[in-house]
Design a protein that fits this description.
- With 476 residues, the chain is mostly helical.
- Among the domains are: 1-77 and 232-316, Rossmann fold, CATH 3.40.50; 371-475, Orthogonal Bundle (Arc Repressor Mutant, subunit A), CATH 1.10.10.350.
- Helices cover 47% and strands 11% of the residues.
- It contains 19 helices and twelve strands.
- It has helices at residues 22-37, 56-69, 84-96, 107-119, 185-195, 211-220, 251-256, 261-270, 283-289, 304-317, 320-333, 344-351, 358-363, 377-383, 386-400, 407-421, 425-437, 445-452, 454-475, and strands at 9-12, 41-46, 75-79, 100-103, 143-146, 153-158, 162-167, 175-177, 200-204, 227-231, 234-235, 300-301.
- The chain has a three-stranded parallel β-sheet. Strands 4-5-8 form a three-stranded antiparallel β-sheet. Strands 6-7 form a two-stranded antiparallel sheet.
- Strand 9 (200-204), helix 6 and strand 10 (227-231) form a beta-alpha-beta unit.
- Helix 16 (407-421) packs across helix 17, helix 16 packs across helix 18 and helix 17 crosses helix 19.
- It binds glutamic acid.
Length: 476
Amino acid sequence: MSSQSAPIRTRFAPSPTGFLHIGGARTALFCQLAARATGGEFVLRIEDTDRERSTQASVQAILDGMAWLGLDYDEGPHYQSERMERYQEAVDGLLAAGLAYRCYCSRERLERLRAEAMAAGQKPRYDGHCRDRTDRPEGIEPVIRFRNPHDGTVAFDDRVRGRIEVENAELDDLVILRADGTPTYNFAVVVDDIDMRINLVIRGDDHINNTPRQINIYRALGAEPPDFAHVPMILGDDGQRLSKRHGAVGVMAWRELGYLPDAMINYLARLGWSYGDQEVFARSELVELFRIEDVNRKASRFDTEKLKWLNQHYLREGDRDQVLVELLWHMERAGLNPASGPEPARLLEVQAERFDTLTELVEQSRSFYQEFDAFEAGAAKKHLRPVAADALQALSGRLAGVAEWEPDALQSAVQETADELGIGFGKIGMPLRVALTGHGQSPAINQTLWLVGRERSLARIERALAWIEARVAAAT
Ligand code: GLU
């Protein structure tokens, strides 16, 4: 299955101007899968030529996001900022060959052109004013423009979108090098993709209009363009482009919300790609089944409910080591010391099926690791009543004598106490639950006892008995 086409050498090329977003993560995943599925390579390149907007913190955030998701690459990261000489060299080559030219047009002139075009209802485009100029005005640092062909068409077969054709007459002479000597995106990306021997470019379809321009630059540089696959954008639940308005868009924000890397990966893979109606995919299965051609042309909607469903699945069935690593991360954030309560693996045994996210799971497990300040008023009022005192007292005695503090033995201890007193299991279960956790929501009572541990359970039952006593005293 894995040699469905020639080895794909592709790259993910984020601009470090923020976090790793959901959309970027999905592009990176598609790159990784396409490369792995064909026995190829996945290259990471940081596009940091925009000095004003690129930050080291963003680079780190992107690397962290990729590492968390397990989006490991085979080569890189390469940094565009370290390749400036190479871009200059490529520009010099084009200038020498007459395929690029210096443009001295002032900002005012360009503004005027733009305003005139807009007023006439046309697309703003450079008019080629400096295309044939031979003088070199003093004191003005020129930009370098690419001499785009006037005639003919540029065509390519996008692996997702199909055939795309554009008339050269539609394209103007774009700036490839700014006056400060930095390359523009469309130029640097082509030089890099040539040098890095990329044979398939996978990226968001917001770049699809750049592709014909880039293809012309490939040819001017004497290279064959690679294949392209433009993946559709991701929409929020209201059909608008996914943005902060819709909630978390940064990958690491989803970690904070309690989601697992494997759930995210499974979800992202299905966001625009499908294989029959299968929803759950192991990573190895994705590598085996993924083909870039099967990516949907239409934009997909982000569906938090489905992600939640997958997360619950992976909490229960996913790789235990990964779930434990994430659990410990969340416990630390929540200020819970794993050594002061049940083994985290034990906690998962009981709690994994009860919650959709690790944040909820950890929040609802506090009382297994920490003392609680007070009984929740409503629960205490309802369940810690004088009639419960006898049952709690009897249970306390029996629990003290339980040989093995294990769920089965604990179940028997509670059952026997109920039988002995001739009351239903529930009559003893709810007061006990409130005594042990401070509130009414917890796993099955024997498991709650198991997680709270012997000493803590006995102490908390004492505390509940004291509370009931105080209540009785206050009432009389
Ligand atoms: N740096 C570009 C971006 O982040 C990369 C586009 C491309 O893959 O060519 O959108």
